[in-house]
Design a protein that fits this description.
single chain; alpha+beta; 16 helices; 8 strands; disordered C terminus
């Protein structure tokens, strides 16, 4: 169960609810959906399908489900992956492919993953109109997930069981289960599951409570001494934001930006940094605000790489600038907010503006301090000189290019 739950937490809505632990579990996802090896499907199918579903890209999710179906025999021992494909195909009414996935799982019995076969059999039974049999299979899934302590898997199983109960004529049971799942998902901030529950309720004519009002993003900053100290500043900004805003529905774009905020908070705070500001599609962060960090440039670069790759997986290409230098820390708009100013922040902002999609620009001082880390991780930073607004002399900078698509010879090492 563990693998499926950890990976499923990378999907769009669960990034908002569970990212604290997802950041530890998954280091990066390929930038594109092209598969080069079977292991790509095993490792990232859950993340990609949940992300596509959360963003309403159902055709993309179905394409991934079809990919699992096409490789069902080779994936037969990876029950959690087969179950995910079955879930997508069932939602699309593709009963023939669903039947073939179930057959592949049955043909290769293994000790582990039996509950996933129960899930597949339940989906197949529901597709065939065998509602009571489906409900029994989902009962097994829910009980096993609850016993193991995997709350998200349990909630999804309960959603499937509610569908089965409704199909079996147990309307009151289905309505009560949907209401319970919706309430629990809202409390867990598991937004995709709550949304799925409400969608099912709408299909079945069940009136469920409206989602709670969204809480405005706030920047909770730990108390740090005010004054001047050496800091590393990081600026990140979405490239092509105007094009995105004209091509995406406002609610979809808003949700993606909220995801970006959550991604940034986790990436930065896990590496002892603080978020100074969220402004539209931009993020400003400072490392060594406390004055007791030595490798703060490494903290900043690791945060930048994590943020760049995770934002790329939700189609938000970032340009990032990192600079090291003196910074002045003062109280911001409230006691819980720190404002950082100085040459380092100005330079990081200018470097960010000069970075292309997926690129990270380092100041000369940042690169000097990061050179050993870059060499150890086989990461290339190309030197160049740039005329930057606000600086009288050309600045020596080092550019880390965007990662090549997964599987290509030019792909950079992490």
């Amino acid at each position: 169960f563990g693998k499926m739950e950890w990976r499923s937490r990378i999907h769009a809505a669960q990034i908002l609810a569970e990212l604290d632990r997802a950041d530890e579990a998954v280091h990066t996802l390929p930038a594109k959906s092209t598969r080069t090896e079977l292991q790509d499907i095993i490792y990232d199918a859950a993340a990609r399908i949940r992300t596509a579903t959360g963003l309403g890209r159902r055709e993309e999710a179905l394409e991934l489900g079809e990919e699992i179906h096409a490789n069902a025999e080779r994936l037969s021992t990876y029950r959690e992956t087969l179950a995910l494909g079955a879930e997508v195909l069932a939602a699309a009414g593709r009963s023939d492919e669903l039947d073939q996935i179930a057959a592949a799982a049955r043909a290769h019995p293994i000790k582990a993953g039996g509950v996933y076969l129960d899930q597949i059999e339940g989906l197949l039974a529901l597709a065939r109109g065998e509602a009571e049999r489906a409900a029994a299979s989902f009962d097994t899934l829910v009980e096993a997930a609850a016993e193991a302590g995997y709350g998200l898997v349990e909630l999804r199983g309960r959603l499937q069981r509610a569908r089965a109960w409704a199909a079996a004529g147990r309307s009151e049971d289905a309505a009560a289960e949907l209401a319970a799942v919706t309430g629990e998902a809202d409390r867990m901030n598991a937004r995709l599951i709550a949304r799925e529950a409400r969608d099912i309720g709408a299909e079945l004519g069940v009136d469920l409570a409206a989602p709670p009002e969204p809480v405005a993003e706030t920047v909770a900053t730990p108390t740090v001494p005010q004054g001047e100290r050496l800091v590393t500043s990081l600026f990140a900004d979405v490239r092509g934001y105007s094009e995105l805003s004209s091509s995406l529905p406002p609610e979809v774009l808003t949700e993606r930006i909220r995801m970006l905020y959550r991604l940034a908070r986790v990436a930065v705070e896990r590496r002892q940094g603080i978020i100074d500001k969220f402004a539209g599609d931009a993020v400003m962060a400072t490392f060594n605000a406390s004055g007791n960090r030595i490798d703060h440039p490494v903290d900043a670069l690791e945060a930048a790489l994590a943020l760049r790759d995770r934002a790329g997986s939700i189609d938000l290409p970032l340009g990032i600038g990192i600079s090291v230098g003196p910074g002045i820390l003062a109280r911001g708009v409230s006691d819980s907010n720190i404002a950082v100013s100085g040459e380092a922040t100005n330079l990081a902002a200018r470097l960010q503006a000069a970075a292309g999609p997926g690129e990270i620009l380092l100041s000369s001082e940042a690169h000097r301090r990061l050179a050993p880390w870059l060499a150890e991780h086989e990461l290339t930073a190309t030197e160049e000189r740039l005329e930057l607004k606000g600086f009288s002399e050309p600045q020596v900078v080092h550019r880390i290019l965007a990662p090549a698509p997964a599987g290509t010879p030019a792909a950079q090492h992490r």
